[in-house]
Amino acid sequence: MKTDHLLFGAAYYSEYLPYDRVEKDMEMMEKAGMNTIRIAESTWSTIEPKDGIFDFTHLDKMLEAAARHHISVIVGTPTYAIPAWLAKKYPDILALTNNGQNIYGARQNMDITHAGYLFHCERVIRAMMEHIKDVPHIIGFQLDNETKSYGTAGPRVQAMFVDYLKEKYPDINEFNREFGLDYWSNRVNTWEDFLDIRGTINESLAAEFAKFQRLLVTRFLAWQAAIVSGYKRPDQFITQNFDYDWTDHSIGYQPEVNQYEAARCMTVAGCDIYHPSQSLLTGEEITFCGNISRSLKKDNYLVLETQAQGNIAWLPYPGQLRLQAYSHIANGSNSVMYWHWHSIHNAIESYWKGILSHDFSENETYREAASIGADWKRIGTHLSNLQKKNRAAILLDNNSLTGLRLFPLKDLGNYSYNTVARWLGDALYHLNIEYDMISSAERDFSSYECLIVPALYSASEDLLTAISDYVKNGGHLITTFRSGFSDEQLKIYADTQPHILQECLGIHYDQYTYPVDVSVTLPDFMASDVGSSCSDESCTNSSKCLHWMDLVTCDTATPLFFYDHPVWKKYAAATVNQFGKGSALYLSSMFDGALLEKVLVHYFASLPETLLAHPECHFPLIIREGVNDFGKRVRFYFNYSGEKQTAICKGFSGTELLSGRKIMEQETFSLEPWGVVIVEEN
């Protein structure tokens, strides 16, 4: 979706204020160059304080003040946190999950399939849309908020699941065979015998139920989109603020939503990205998660939530808010919006701080935000709608993510899949190789020179064949342990591993284990490769193996290096194979990221055209690039460190947009700690 300017602002709820200051807040936003707010999505209980009684006082006050201060508005459907009267009206509206019956209090505690919930959702959405449909400065609508199934698994949901299975497997014997239900007498001889799914020990069946729960989310969002579409103008967009897998920040692909399918009902993809800050700020999450969002519609996206001050540990150093904002834009976002405008004075998010602190006064974060707003008024048209053409892509797969939650790698638990995906993605990022994401539902990878496939634990035979054919026809593949191992139902393939990819990769294995006191050391011909300017003194040519190791034997592949271990030393830890017109790199084990970067540099150097566009640069100096609406290349240089860095302008001369000064080709320039330089080609 194209925008005529960058959207900059924050979530705003007058309902949360300790006193009325809407006019003052909008005045401060306008002064800071903010042009957009998000409202309404968490305020059902004030919009509908009693069953069927609607009150749009707060909504109207915010909309009217925003108009006076030239601020556009994104309105969220207020359905992700139900009012108390609704929970009292339908006690079973609260989801029954693996942990038992939810109780009222937290948000997102309801069963999204409940008829009463859906009735009241539709009623409040229609009442709100009817009330605001003619407001000219509403630019778009957000469906719900970070929607998931919330683990709903009550009797009705399970009955729906059985109907889903009946349709998918008309022959119950085929169903039993596909899921291996003879194990431990779990066979279902009639559909009426199907018992509570929450007790299953059959991980294939558990994975299928997780897939079904993702389908519930897709249907729910499409249902809301259809309602909103009946009221919106052609110029207004529909989006959703998808979030990501989470530890204490966003880390990777969301396990509970098929975002590629769910995004189909939307006009633009949106996301919420949170990340470490201060000395831990790297930009890795901004890139990895932003790339996912950009891939959903294969277009620019919206960052609907990110941190201003945020979590107490995230209070940014001077310059970091600016660095983060430009990193989002360089990745293809057309917006940066903060959660939240002000710090909240009560409840669970009291110490998740907004742009303003609890005293509502101007502070360092506000002043830095104002500097971003001033920049974007001046140069924003040169940065919006950036188009990116990348030569590499990472393939993402929900089923494999589920499979590695059910059968996790050592010590990684639920985060196994995303840890492997981030291991590869972060190495590419450190080497300044830009990449896209691609859904495992696709079968044509020919637009990319390099396809990166992390831990494809669950894969259909047609997907594996498509990957093999991609290499045979001239593509270059990087894949890892735990790939090509089980089918779509998590049933392990019964032939030599890796299934179908054996010839493409030129290897086979039939044993694997957790590494204990196992290392890998790069041979001299790899350790001495030029291409990475990493100056980290701790970056060596040896590393401990982590989490997993396949005991790989090479058939046609060439071993790059072996395990350092008296028992396992005959097995290859990484291999490369020429297959057809292409090649494949297989990583049998997981080791330190710095060592992985050296392996990738060696592999990329062997390709007909290396992917290393900036071999002289390495993290913390990060380079991003895109083409703007004027048809000009825009290159961003980011310093993700507290020390000065130097960079060279290669390939073109141009204008540094922030300062207005000219930069010549091959000119060397400095970046301040946590600094940004943006060059638009002449």
From TrEMBL:
Which InterPro entries does the entry mention?
Beta_galactosidase_C, Beta_galactosidase_Trimer, Class_I_gatase-like, GH, Glyco_hydro_42, Glyco_hydro_42_N
What are the Beta-galactosidase C-terminal domain coordinates in residue numbering? 631-681
E.C. number(s) listed in UniProt: 3.2.1.23
Give me the segments passing through the membrane.
none
Q: Which UniProt keywords apply?
A: Glycosidase, Hydrolase, Metal-binding, Zinc
The chain positions of domain Glycoside hydrolase family 42 N-terminal read 12-378
Q: Which Pfam families match?
A: Glyco_hydro_42, Glyco_hydro_42C, Glyco_hydro_42M
Q: Which reaction does it catalyse?
A: Hydrolysis of terminal non-reducing beta-D-galactose residues in beta-D-galactosides
What would be an example GO MF term here?
A: beta-galactosidase activity
Start and end of every Beta-galactosidase trimerisation domain? 391-603
- The answer to whether UniProt assigns keyword Nucleotide-binding to this entry is no
* Family, per entry: Belongs to the glycosyl hydrolase 42 family.
The name of this protein is beta-galactosidase
Q: What is the lineage of its organism?
A: Bacteria, Bacillati, Bacillota, Clostridia, Lachnospirales
